[in-house]
Write a structure and sequence with these properties.
Length: about 60
């Protein structure tokens, strides 16, 4: 799967609340996206990008 395909399958094109003139690919739920990212990267033999997601405890 290409990065573009992954983003399109796991996000929705939405306008953020405070900037409705912009449309961004946003995830509605963070955990499913994190899990899918780990699964996809595991298939490629890569570690998860710890820097790409906000940590709830951090």
């Amino acid at each position: 799967m290409t990065p573009r395909d992954f983003i399109r399958r796991n996000t929705a094109l939405l306008a953020p609340p405070l900037v409705p003139e912009l449309r961004l690919h946003l995830a509605s739920e963070v955990m499913p996206l994190w899990q899918r990212t780990e699964e996809e990267l595991a298939r490629m033999g890569l570690p998860p990008p710890y820097w790409a997601f906000a940590w709830a405890g951090g």
